[in-house]
Design goal:
Elements (H helix, E strand, L loop, with lengths): L11 E2 L5 E2 L2 H35 L13 H25 L1
């Protein structure tokens, strides 16, 4: 049986310097990309499974929620947005 030889080279250079890919190289690199993506997704899925199912079954306390913003920070942002809205409405009224 005469099978085509598939190598991991990036491609043969043509006269203009651009790589010329064969059909086998397209198939190979597509398969490699698929395998890498599948392994990454399965690893992420395993991490979520561990965090959600295994730790809950072990009776570990749930992780505490950490907030990046305090209530005063959120109130300040809301106040700034309200001021911006009022100024915008004033500008609209002036232009009408």
């Amino acid at each position: 049986m005469n099978l085509p030889k598939i190598s991991l080279r990036f491609g043969k250079k043509t006269v203009k310097g651009l790589p010329k890919f064969s059909r086998e190289e397209y198939i190979l690199w597509s398969a490699v990309t698929f395998v890498v993506a599948a392994v990454a997704l399965l690893g992420y899925d395993a991490y979520i499974f561990y965090q959600d199912i295994i730790e809950r079954a072990a009776g570990l306390p749930p992780a505490t929620a950490r907030s990046k913003f305090s209530e005063s920070d959120i109130d300040e942002v809301i106040m700034l947005l309200d001021e911006r809205k009022e100024k915008f409405n004033e500008i609209l009224l002036k232009n009408q």
